[in-house]
Amino acid sequence: MNEFRDELADEPEEVQDERTGTPPAGLASFRIATYNVHSCVGIDAKFSPERVAEVVRGLECDVVGLQEVGWHHRGEIGRDQFAAISQGSGLKAYPGPTKHNERAHYGNALLTNLPVLAVRPIDLSLPMREPRGAIDADIQVGDRVVRVIVAHLGLDPWERNAQITRVLHAMEAGPPRPTVFMGDLNEWRGRSPRLKRLARSFDDCAAPRSFHVRLPALRLDRIYVTGELQLASFEVVKTKHTRRASDHLPVRATIAVRR
Q1: Cβ burial, residue 192 (10 Å; 0-12/13-18/19+)
Q2: Is residue 115 a contact partner of residue 121, using CB atoms and an 8 Å limit?
Q3: DSSP string, 17-31
Q4: How many Å apart are CA 142 and CA 108, to the nearest integer?
Q5: pLDDT tens for residues 113-168?
Q6: Using CB atoms within 10 A as the burial measure, which of 6, 10, 87, 246 is most buried?
Q7: What domains can be seen in the chain, in order of their start residue?
Q8: Are 43 and 230 in contact (CB under 8 A)?
């Protein structure tokens, strides 16, 4: 318990749990969310891709990044959670599995109703660690192409540091674009060196307390944006369904695209 208090005390005072605002007039904007769905098993131990799809649909977002979709050790063997969430939410799914099994796949997903121009996987796996990855997509927003990267980082600091390096290298290797980097980053110390690295590469961040749903205290789920994008608003979404459908709460933001 004392260690947990120390972690909370380590949070920078300027971190906000929400921001209220509207996009500037005349700018294209879109709504985006990141959500760790815990293989569609809620805190009531109920397996329900339909409930997760209902949460995703209720977010009313143009782009949603999911983590922990699928796998047979939770829920129903052989059930395609990627397809079920896509069908139930009304958004097209772009799966990014990191584990493959004949009974189920597991990993990240990008869901959107916007035109997707390209999708690239980023391998974040490291030796002797759980396979990890990211989805790197170019999405048309108005007359601009926005890069969206959805990731789920590892549990050890050295692992996350190497994975952040790979994400930043992927960004540098591609054409310059307005970029969103979001996901469950598994960083709970607000002054960690990994978060400081990301703060140097991105201009703003949404990081409300999203874990655990019973008592949200840790800022594990984050949305970063580069300077061509403006975080007009953000929040953690607390509803009857989000408090049960997973052990994480969704983080949602409205982003404006600067000219």
Answers
A1: middle
A2: no
A3: S-B---PPTT-EEEE
A4: 26
A5: 999 999 999 999 999 999 999 999 999 999 999 999 999 999 999 999 999 999 99
A6: 246
A7: 27-257 (3.60.10.10)
A8: no
